[in-house]
Amino acid sequence: MLLYGCSDLGKTFTAEVLTEHLQYPLYKISAGELIGDRCLKNSVSNIFKTASHFNAILLVDEDDVFLHKCSVGGVHDHSVMIFLCKLEYFERVLFLTTNCVDEFDDAILSRIHYKLKYEALGWEF
User: Fold this and answer.
1) pLDDT at 81 over 90
2) Where is each ATPase AAA-type core domain found (predicted)?
3) pTM of the model
4) Which CATH number is 102's domain given?
């Protein structure tokens, strides 16, 4: 499930509350933790394995850092490819949060079943 929209509207909190309500453990990581990791494939693999082992809901917070579009052959292209390979076989709930859904890689967006947009709050009553 992709939760996207303006900052500070409760995207991460939504995932945390739903996880608590469903009484599952939450495995929360920041996408920025994976950037520049020499062993990215092992890191991503371990994250998915750990979440599966503990039957946890996985929350990848602030995905705009990790899964955005970029030029072909870049580091991010490789990261996206690794993430997609592991995502294909992940049979648990996964939350992705971002402020910039327009920058998401199309290959990722095509694999997301539910997208929830958080609109900016207004002052109209």
Assistant:
1) no
2) 1-115
3) 0.82
4) 3.40.50.300
